[in-house]
Amino acid sequence: MMNTSRYKKTYPISWEQLHRDSKALAWRLLELGPFERIVAITRGGLVPAAIVARELEIRLVDTVCVASYDWQAQGESVVLKRVNGKGDGWLIIDDLVDTGKTAELVRNMLPKAHFATVYAKPAGRPIVDTFITEVSQDTWILFPWDSEHQFVQPIVHQR
To answer: pLDDT tens digit string along 70-112?
Structure first.
């Protein structure tokens, strides 16, 4: 069930919306490149990174693997896989910057890379260089890989 102390709202994202927003991110990044490599933050950054890589025709795609969430509970970030280098000419892609803990960890790992996310919350927004949509800190973004289609009560009955 939803952790009501931290998240007051849920914002579901469809596959189509994620694709449109990731493509919009690619449009914004096009003017800032060229980039020679993408580093996706797994797992959330994998789908947006694939879309951006296609749109910008970037063939070198790597991953930084960080575990920090178990559903809506954010714990301590654990780096499962690193990338070597400073990040010159590289593009870091993630789906979302929330508190900024994961972003700060990866930013310190690749200090010269350009950091881009599709969605940003106020606490993490200053850490990234480029994003498309800002959502409030108390909103849980429900990504399509975490959901299935089912009946939902009207908002008036959810209070």
So the answer is: 655 566 788 899 999 999 999 999 999 999 999 999 999 999 9
Concatenating the DSSP letter of every residue in 50-92 gives HHHHHHHT---EEEEEEEEEETTEEEEEEEEE---S--TTEEE
pLDDT tens digits, one per residue of 42-79:
999 999 999 999 999 999 999 999 987 665 556 678 88
21 is catalytic: no
- Catalytic residue list contains 129: no
The pTM of this model reads 0.85
Selected catalytic residue, list 21, 62, 95, 146: 95
Q: Could you give the CA distance from residue 91 to residue 113 in angstroms, rounded to a whole number?
A: 6
Single-letter amino acid, residue 88: D
Tell me whether residue 88 is one of the annotated catalytic residues.
no
